[in-house]
Amino acid sequence: MDAAANENEVRLRKGTSLNERLVLAGLAALLCLVALPGLNHLANGHWLGIAALFALLFGCLLLGAALLDRNVVWIITPGEILIGEQRPFGKLHRRLIRYDEISGMHLRKSSGKSIEFSLAFETKSGTLLTSPPLPDITRVHETTVRIARLLQLPDPEPVENPLDAVNAGIRLGKPVNPKRVLGYTALIVLLACVLSFPFIHALWNGTLSAPGVAVWSLGAIVVFVLFRYVHRMSGTCWIIHDGGIRIERLSLKGRIEVETIRGDDVEAVDVESGGRKDSLYVITIRLRSGKRVRSPPLAGKDQTRAVRAEIIRRLGLNPRGAE
Predict the structure, then answer these.
(1) pLDDT tens, position by position, 271-299
(2) Domain spanning 235-315 has what CATH number?
(3) Is 240 exposed, middle or buried (0-12, 13-18, 19+ CB in 10 A)?
(4) For the segment 100-110, what is each residue's pLDDT rounded down to a tens digit?
């Protein structure tokens, strides 16, 4: 997805680059080659043959996605939308939509691995056209207003976006709520009771061995630690204002704990992998004191980079110096 080339043009893209297609096709071909020898066991009903068959089907699906996925680009200029669609090795299909063919426009929010916003256009012929995702999660309102002006349409109804730069405070993560801890506490208690049942049954029958006592004791220690830090499991909330970041979390005693980071405190702002899932990323702020503060996870590297750029802007940092 690309940003607008100039004030009189907005470009929206959706699709896969050539390098990404080649990597996906290479993985698919490798998976198929590895699976082929295992098909010899399929006639005997061996589990290896069944696994090879599923691997082969999955590889074919990946190969089909790499070859058949289409690239779409919308070029929005004053009074018209030029839509181009093309598949690999296929012909480019163009379509021109003029502003007087459009009867309405509204903003659409989709929640999957990451929050995305797109525009839905209704034509006077009854056709519904959905644009590729808007390129910058922090500039959704600004981009939407620009598109509406270019097409001479009224501004669509706004959609809630906690990451939009138009907000006085950009919020990352859910607001801190002590009541959320009750759910985690109940889950820990339930898990402890279920896992303790075999040991209690063995103790009642007099068959509890020394290794069993050791494992049960280790489990009790784990449950104690979970109870000790259950308030930290409720997460952290960042509220990014001009000049500072307000960080809210629950202390070990269950009270709301507030920390404020000013621009003068920051050494660098980085984007790092969320660790547990490849699609999750976090913003790490390195303070001049040497401390590192990690944000709540964000979905998508592009989205995380956009939020990082807005943090740098609001804190008044030098973009190069913050790297």
Answers:
(1) 888 655 557 888 999 998 888 988 888 87
(2) 2.30.29
(3) buried
(4) 999 889 998 87
